[in-house]
Design goal:
By secondary structure, this protein is α/β, with parallel strands linked by helices. It has helices spanning about 1-5, 20-35, 40-50, 110-125, 125-135, 140-150; strands at about 10-15, 55-60, 60-65, 80-90, 100-105.
């Protein structure tokens, strides 16, 4: 999966985002670059988080930005990766809702999406890998971690 992020150029490494809204928009950029998603998709995710709360933060430091099934502006099924050096807070009263790793989900093929989610879940269950992703600084680190943990 990490190799796919590099091969498809679906990654972004950044120092920080002004807030969680900007972080979500930033996390969509690599998917927008090859028209996997259209520019409205990030704004749709922001609106969902405003409406439903920080449901996208699935564990400390990890967010899965996504909209609802059949979202407008999704042209391909893929996952984009973004790592921030400084965390953004989705809930100032709950540090468990801070995130630095973003796996942005785009889905228009349910079977492919399920496969992506399965592989992503397996990857995120590896605490050592997640810790090393927090130290990653570029695509070469993603390839190294792919070889170390996932090949």
């Amino acid at each position: 999966m990490l190799r796919e992020f590099v091969e498809k150029k679906h990654y972004l490494f950044a120092e920080e985002a002004a807030d969680w809204e900007e972080a979500i928009l930033m996390s969509c950029r690599s998917l927008e670059a090859d028209n996997t998603v259209e520019s409205n998709y990030g704004r749709d995710i922001v609106e969902c988080v405003k409406k439903y709360g920080p449901y996208i933060v699935i564990m400390p430091n990890v967010a899965l930005p996504h909209s609802q099934e059949g979202a407008v502006g999704v042209n391909k099924t893929a996952i984009g990766f973004m790592k921030l050096d400084k965390p953004v807070s989705f809930d100032p009263d709950d540090p468990e809702k801070d995130a630095r790793l973003f796996f942005t989900l785009a889905s228009c093929n349910p079977n492919q999406h399920l496969d992506n989610m399965t592989r992503l879940s397996e990857m995120l269950m590896n605490e050592e890998l997640v810790e090393e992703l927090l130290d990653a600084s570029g695509p070469e680190d993603l390839l190294r971690l792919q070889e170390k943990y996932l090949d």
